[in-house]
Every structure is written in C-alpha cells, then in structure tokens.
Amino acid sequence: NYLLGVGRADCTGPVAEIPLMGYANPDQVGGGLLTRLYSRAFIVAEVDDSRRVVFVSADIGMVSQRLRLEVLKKLKSKYGELYRQDNVILSGTHTHSGPGGYFQYTLFWFTSKGLIRPSLNAIVNGIVKSIDIAHQNMKRGRLFINRGTVENSQINRSPFSYLENPASEQSRYSSNTDKEMVMLKMVDGNGQDLGLISWFAVHPVSMNNTNRLVNSDNVGYASYLFEQEKNKGMLPGEGSFVAAFASSNLGDVSPNTKGPFCVNTGESCNNPQSTCPIGGATMCMAMGPGNDMFDSTRIIGQNIYLKARELYEEASQEVTGPLRSAHQWVNMSDVSVELNATHTVKTCKPALGHSFAAGTIDGVGAFNFTQGSVEGDPFWDEIRDQLLGQPSNETKACHKPKPILFSTGEMTWPHPWHPDIVDVQIAVIGSLAIVAVPGEFTTMSGRRLREAVKREFDYHGTPRMDVVIAGLCNVYTHYITTYEEYQVQRYEAASTIYGPHSLSAYVQLYRGLARAIATNTVQDLPRGPEPPVFNIRNVTLVPPLTADRVPANKTFGDVLQEVRQQYRVREVAEVTFVGANPRNSAENATEHNFLLVERYASTSDSWHVVQNDASWDTRFYWTKGLHGRSNVTIEWHIPHGTEPGVYRIRYFGHYKKKLSNSHAVSIPFEGTSSVFEITAL
C-alpha cells in the first residue's frame, strides 16, 4: 500500500511565432493549435510518508536543464525538502510539435530563436501546477505493473547502425526495436481508477516537419483516448483520471512504419546513407501508415492506446516495497571508464558530427548533408573554422571516427553551447526501478543499460527488479549510441555528444546509483558538481508583440468566411474570423481556450459545449497578415458518432492595444459563427 496522487495541468505556452522544438528546422514556426500540451504528475509516498517519488511526463520535446532547475527551485520554496533533486523525475514525451525556446545552452538558440521566457514559464508553471494537484489529492492506493508487446507501431530508422552490434548480442533479440510496453496502473483504496504511466520506445514524429500546429503527436493522442474513455462526459483536459504515455529508449525508433522513400521518385531509400539517386538525402523521407500525417498520428496513437488499455484491464502483479531514489550530477565531458582490469577510456568534451546536420528519415536537414559520414566536408569545415573556430586536436582525436562539425564543448560565447554537467538518476518504487536518462538512448544502448542495472540489483541482493528507462529527463544531451553503432556515424551517432564511450560511462554511473540504492548507501554518493545557471533575461529573435489591427469597417471576432448551413458526419465545418495574435492570450492566462464547439439544446433553450481546443477534432489556424492584421480559421472535423442537431463555433482571443508608448493592454474579445445543422448520414 502507498499514498498516491495524480495531477494534470496545461503547459501549452504560446502557439504562434515560436519555433517548434524537435526537427531543428528554424522555418517550422507555430501557427496554431491542434491539441493542448499537458504536464502529468504522479506522486507515490510510503504510508508513513517517510519517502516520496515524483514522476512527471510532460508533452514537450525534452526536459532542459534550465527547466528542471527552475521547477525544483519553485518546489523548494513551496514544499521545503519534500521534493528534491533525487526524488523528482521530469521526463519529456518528445513530441516535435511543441514550442521551443526553453534552453540555456547556446546551440539550442539557433533553431528556437533564443531563450523565450513565455515559453519557458508556461512549461515551468504547468509542471509545478500538475505536481501541486497531485500533492493535494494524495490518498491510499495500490500499484500494479504489466507488460506486453505493441505491434505495427515502430521501425528502426538506422538499421544499418544496429547491424554493427555484435551478432551474438543481436541474436538474443527478436527485433531491432523494443516492442515491449511497461505499464504502471494506479488505483485508490476502493479500487477506483486513478491513472497510469506507460513506457514505450517510439519517436513522436508522426506529425512531420511541415506541421505548424502545436500538438502532442502519437503518444499524446494515446493519452487523449485513454483519458476521454475514463473521464466520461468530460471535455479533453478535464477529469481526474491521468494517463501518461512516457518516452523510453527511442533513439533509433520511428513510427513511420512504411519506411523511407524518395519523395520525388517513390523508390525506397533504405540505404546506409539514406540518400536518393536524384536529390540526395533531402529527398529521403519516411512515411507513416496513414494517408497523411494526421491520420498516421491517429493510427499509431490508437495502437499504443489499445495495448495500454488491455494491459491496464488485465494488470494483476502488485508492486510493493520501499521507495528509494538516487541522483548525481556528473561532468560528462571528463568521465574515466574502466572497460576491464587493464583498459580505461574517457568521455570527451561535447561535439556534434557532420551527420548531425543530415537529420533523419523522419525530418531531413537543411543542407544536403548525408548520414553515415566519417569524412568531413572541406567546404563546411572551412565555413565552420571561419565562423566558430576549429576543434582542438584533442577533441578531434577523442571523438574519432566522428568528423566534427561543431565543437560545442569548446564554444562558450555568449554562454556554453552544450552542457558538461549532466544528471543521472534512478527512482525505485518497490520492484520497479525507473532509470531517468538525459537524452535519447538507441534500442541496443537501452537494452545494455537496463541489463546492467538489473544485474547490479541482482548482485546486491535485490533480485527480480523491473527496470524501465524513462527518456529525455532532466537535461538534454542528444543521443547515446553503442560503441559499435558510433563507428558508422549515422545521425544518432553523430549526435552522441560525449564521444564513443558515452554509453559505457552511463552504464558505469547508473550501476553506481543502483549499487548505492541496493546497499542502502545513497547518503554516501557524492552530489557532484552543480550545473551553472546563466544570467539570461530574454534573448530572442521572436518578433515583438505589436498592436493588433482590423480591416476597415471590421472589428475583432467578426466572421470573414462563414460556415455552411449544413454538414454531415466526417465533413469539416470551417469558419474564418478577424483575429489577433494568439501570443496575447498565452501571455494573459494559462487556462485560455481559443475555441468552443457548442450544441443547441432546445429543451433548455441553451448551448452546451461539446468540444474545446484540446480536442483532436478541432484545428485552430492563425494567419499573420500585414500591419498588425491577422485571421483565425477554425476547423471542426466532425467525428463519427456526433449527434445530429444545431451547432455553432466560437472563437476567443485577446488583442493588444497601445495606450501610450510604454504601455499596452490586452483586451479580450470573442466571435461566433452562424448556426449550422449536422444531419444524419
């Protein structure tokens, strides 16, 4: 028996003009909303409340160090020593369709246009609020664990790297991806459902890099389906049941199951360089199972949800036992690893290889770089040397065979480009060990890490532990491949920033944490060097918010393009309004709703909300015009099962009005479509 608490809070942030975080494509800037982003928090405490563990999964690309440090600072001021570095795990789902700009290291500023306070604040506040809600709702309850196989939902996107691993190791596994889902079910003392955490390795990149709508991708859709099912009669984002679909060792795992094809010719480009005969690497893209990215997101999300639902209903293995947690900060650019009694190797200062710029079959890079380059390119190297300085011989030698594109560990202007100080952390809930990793471990890297941690627990008298990897936790350090995968330098290897022995170093470190937990010597672990906090106020290339304006003879919220009078199920109702910049709303309130779909009830002569902007069936598009003008288009993709009747769509915004040179206010407004009828098929 434990004390359990679950909580969910909005962490969407600004949905316009902020670059989306994930594909590193500066042109992929937010232009609206498909679904809201949420932070989902789970607190487990021992019944005498002596120990606690907090697990948070947030619908964001990854947790950044700045984000973690700010969250922990807020928790400390609210709760004292209750929630700390060691017992709070913050994990990102890795959606590639959430706002960026919440990083303090310079490299991430290029693709997300700097450090964007409104974006960072929305995530910090959302995470803290979700923990607050969980904290306030603690009650006696029980935990159950279950595991099962998810089919038809992933492929390995670097199979040629995977094949470099020892044949004897490969032969122990039936697949080149981890198909297993691990699910933790939470119920209260009366057996009432509280929530669940699912860990499953897949990239949330069903939405590709042409998408401009903020959303939580395939794993977010799985959360949506589970929460809609359990919170009957509630709108999306409401209700007490919380379902988190958290990331795991997804480094080389894509949901785009049709595999890579040349966009221009239609032939396969499943080759070691992922290139096409005509157009090179930029033409090689993987496709999902659906007929477009929205459909693929739905299919993959539904697969994941259906397996989780089955595991949830059938879960019978109870999790019992004490709670433990351990955390260290480590200087990852200087770890000595004992490979065996005679051989010691070292990690390197961070650096990115040439193939980092190639991107992947899920989202290709901007300039025709190819994956699998173990040679540099004199043209790009010369540009790099002139602009950024060339890498030192020491760094070059340490990273071999990686040809270095950016020697980020040697770049410090205006602040360091990459972290040196990295979090390693394990939290134990009875027989479940959650290994919180600071990046994207590939399939085989994750298997080696899980096995090493499990062996360490076994050896020190804690057998039969269930070990799960929670991905994209605490600080972002890109990818971690195996030593063998590193040698062929595809994207994941080029992005293994601490060099060829990164995985060995992490295995050594996490074994140390597991040993300390198993032998009850956590208090003797050195804390390690504290990470820096850079004094950055608001460095950003995001355009400043200016006064919103309207066309002649119009006002905010006026309809420019009306709905039709009649629709059938599966058609799209669409309306366009005179709009204003949605960033005004984000900076006004976290709980802001941009739209509602309402149905008329003749019996009570009133309107009832049937959908909001967190719904997967609604899409909110913002189009910027000239001189402060803008339009908003709202689509409702009328789902199967919608009751016939009379409906309308409402839009809610804020416009910025200048009162003087130094003072502006945001003024709320709304607009409403004409009524329309939905008829039975």
Automatic annotation (TrEMBL):
Listed InterPro entries? Ceramidase_alk, NCDase_C_sf, NEUT/ALK_ceramidase_C, NEUT/ALK_ceramidase_N
Q: Please state every residue range assigned to the domain named Neutral/alkaline non-lysosomal ceramidase N-terminal.
A: 2-508
Cite the Pfam families for this sequence.
Answer: Ceramidase_alk (PF04734), Ceramidse_alk_C (PF17048)
- Keywords, A to Z? Hydrolase, Lipid metabolism, Metal-binding, Sphingolipid metabolism, Zinc
Q: What is its EC number?
A: 3.5.1.23
Q: Which cofactor does it need?
A: Zn(2+)
Q: Which GO terms describe its biological process?
A: ceramide catabolic process; long-chain fatty acid biosynthetic process; sphingosine biosynthetic process
GO cellular component terms, alphabetically, are: cytoplasm; extracellular region; plasma membrane
Instruction: Show where the Neutral/alkaline non-lysosomal ceramidase C-terminal domain sits.
Output: 511-678
Instruction: Provide the binding site for Zn(2+).
Output: H94, H203, E440, Y479
> Catalytic residues per the record?
S254 (nucleophile)
Example GO molecular function:
metal ion binding
Quote the cofactor binding remark: Binds 1 zinc ion per subunit.
What catalytic activity is recorded? an N-acylsphing-4-enine + H2O = sphing-4-enine + a fatty acid
For this chain, the family text in UniProt reads:
Belongs to the neutral ceramidase family.
What is the protein name for this chain?
Neutral ceramidase
This chain's source organism reads: Pygoscelis papua
